[in-house]
Write a structure and sequence with these properties.
The protein is mainly alpha-helical. The chain has six helices and no strands.
Length: 168
């Protein structure tokens, strides 16, 4: 069965938004390493601020079309709460994963790196897992709290502020 034009637009918006987010996160991380070699704290600050700024713009760009989930966990949570159908959630997740892959590849290409490479930084410890789970729960609370309180217009700024802070 073919997708409706509206459904296709939503999937394209999620793909494009997530690609730009991946490009912003990875690109600003690479740029920070090049601009501030050996200064991890400054690199983290540069990456967080660039990501937060880009996130506001990306959410404003695709939010009116798809809701700017940009994250499979957000789409799954929206499905659990009845905001979107199972089919829409599955489509969003596929579009987001594909968009993230394309965005990261583009960031690598822009900085003249190998298009695809494996990270050598281990992030598989218990504390990393706990921090990721807590950061994701916080993100969901910000998104759904702002939207359910009737202040959805503030979501781009609230989400970006949270992500910027959560980087640390």
């Amino acid at each position: 069965m073919l997708l409706s034009l509206t459904a296709a637009r939503r999937l394209v918006a999620e793909f494009v938004g997530t690609a730009f987010l991946g490009l912003a996160v990875v690109g600003s991380g690479i740029a920070a390493q090049e601009l501030s070699p050996g200064n991890t704290g400054l690199q983290l600050l540069e990456n967080a601020i660039a990501t937060g700024g880009a996130l506001v713009a990306i959410i404003l760009m695709v939010g009116p079309v798809s809701g700017a989930h940009l994250n499979p966990v957000v789409s799954i949570a929206d499905r659990v709460f009845g905001g979107i159908s199972s089919r829409a959630a599955a489509g969003y997740v596929v579009a987001q994963v594909a968009g993230a892959v394309v965005g990261v590849i583009l960031a690598n290409v822009i900085f003249d790196l190998s298009a695809v490479d494996w990270s050598t930084t281990a992030r598989d410890s218990g504390p990393h897992l706990v921090s990721e789970v807590l950061a994701t729960i916080g993100l969901l609370l910000v998104i759904f709290g702002v939207v359910r309180s009737g202040r959805a217009l503030l979501a781009p700024f609230a989400v970006a502020a949270y992500i910027t802070g959560a980087y640390f």
